[in-house]
Design a protein that fits this description.
CATH class of the largest domain: Alpha Beta
Shape: elongated
CATH superfamily of the largest domain: Response regulator
Structural class: alpha/beta
Number of helices: 8
Largest sheet: 5 strands, parallel
Order of helices and strands: EHEHEHEHEHEEEEHHHEE
Strand order of the largest sheet: 2-1-3-4-5
Distance between the termini: 26 Å
Number of domains: 2
Length: 224
């Protein structure tokens, strides 16, 4: 899952981005409203974490502009303002949730997870594909009741495929949702991670769950 953090406080943005990456999210950071709008226009995000007090365009303006563009990406607004009127302004601008600073990182994670669940396609907390079980809250993965140890990026890739189970997922879609702006589209990074996942998920099992359609993409499915 890929998240855009729009926050002008470099220290705060760094803390949020680091914590989200440690929890298997791909993260891009924009430090003003103009940059945030640009990033949202060129990339496909699963959630936007948006500060209210921003240079160039404040969070309310950014939110209104995104909704005017028919961008339905869930938006979590961050602000030091706790007044009810400020919250109402945020919701009226099109925000989906509102978190007042200071906040615990655990609460931020919980709010983001709740926003992801609102999409009917992203609702489950636990995904079961054959004998593969993936818990999106604890990030635990097991196959045939045996726990599978994955790195943060391996987990992120597997979760994205699990959310699209039974569907062919292109390389471009994986790059857009599992990696951030530092991803080199000409590298073989995705192929390397898919090979690692195959060894860990399918390795000794006769029923293979990870499938490749050469030149088209990848699929996680119980069907051959």
């Amino acid at each position: 899952m890929r998240i855009l953090v729009v926050e002008d406080d470099a220290r705060m943005a760094g803390v949020i981005a680091k914590g989200l990456r440690e929890n298997s999210y791909a993260v891009d950071v924009a430090q003003d409203g103009e940059a945030g709008l640009y990033q949202a226009a060129i990339n496909d995000y699963d959630v936007i974490v948006l500060d209210v007090l921003l240079p160039k365009h404040d969070g309310y303006e950014v939110c209104r502009e995104l909704r005017k563009r028919a961008d339905t990406t869930p938006i979590l607004m961050l602000t030091a303002r706790a007044a009810i009127d400020d919250r109402i302004t945020g919701f009226d601008a099109g925000a989906d949730d509102y978190l007042t600073k200071p906040f615990s990182f655990r609460e931020l994670l919980a709010r983001i997870h709740a926003l992801l669940r609102r999409d009917s396609q992203l609702r489950p907390d636990v995904f079961e594909i054959g004998d593969l079980v993936l818990d999106s809250i604890s990030h635990r993965v097991s196959r045939a009741n045996n726990e599978v140890q994955l790195t943060a990026k391996e987990y992120a890739l597997l979760e994205y495929l699990a959310r699209r189970a039974g569907q062919l997922v292109s390389r471009a879609e994986i790059a857009a949702h599992v990696w951030d702006d530092t991803f080199d589209p000409f590298s073989n990074t995705i192929e390397v991670y898919m090979n690692r996942l195959r060894k860990k998920i399918d390795g000794k099992h006769s029923l293979k769950l990870l499938h490749t359609r050469r030149g088209e993409g990848y699929m996680l499915d119980v069907r051959h």
